[in-house]
Amino acid sequence: MGLDRPLEVTDEGHGSLKTVVADLNRRFGPTMVRYGGAGERGGLETGVLCLDALFPGGGLPRERLSWVTGRAGEGVFDLGLALLARISRTLPVAVVDFDMRVDPGDIADYGGALENCWLVRPRLPEQGWAAARSVILGGVDFCLLLAHSWQQLSRSVPALLVAALEERGAVGLLGGGAAIPPSLRGRVAMELSCRREGWVRAHRDVVGVELSLSVVRSRMGPLGGECRLVVGFPRAYPSPVGVVERGQSRDDVLMRESLMEAVGS
Known about the structure:
Blueprint: H1 17-28, H2 49-52, E1 65-69, H3 76-88, E2 93-97, H4 104-109, E3 117-120, H5 125-138, E4 142-146, H6 156-168, E5 171-175, H7 182-185, E6 188-202, E7 205-218, E8 226-232, E9 242-245, H8 252-264
Parallel strand pairs: 1-5, 1-6, 2-3, 2-4, 4-5
Antiparallel strand pairs: 6-7, 7-8, 8-9
């Protein structure tokens, strides 16, 4: 609708904007008219303050499709699974694993509530896109789609997925890949670049990864936002697991204590 800020309208008067919009959506479907801003509900908070601050709505954009881009080994998959697990503690979530490499145990290892998680492992890409749309319409609030590379697809596929997100007020997040086809990229509201800055080491082992994220493309707000995160890996021995904002200290002990606090929250 192209409004710089929400209009202050009331229910008084048949011709009020609020009444007209409600009538159009009742007659032609709930996504006929959609507000161009972040939405009344705001974003889906991840609990990682610096990450949530990158998005205009204070969290992962609802009704929109976002993309965290990064090559294999840059930490995108670990970040995606850690966020999925965190959100699953309060909301139903799904992950569509186009590479067929994720196991339910991986989500459990990151502290996810498996009773709130659905894992889709499609044999063909079109099955994955169709399943993502179905689980969103079925009640999933956060859908993570993971792939090392994204194949060409018709314009109708991402359009239908975004329509499902709009109808449910859900969040869609693409994770992985250095490029996506134009038909998909045109439906992405925000694009974040993920880069590995270093490893977190303890017990003579790599127990986590330090990441930097930056907003490289946005159809919702300004560019240039950046944040640094730490993702703690699951280990056989007691070890902090999860994702938190990177503190100013370079001390690994402080980072592990921060991760412990995040897992306990």
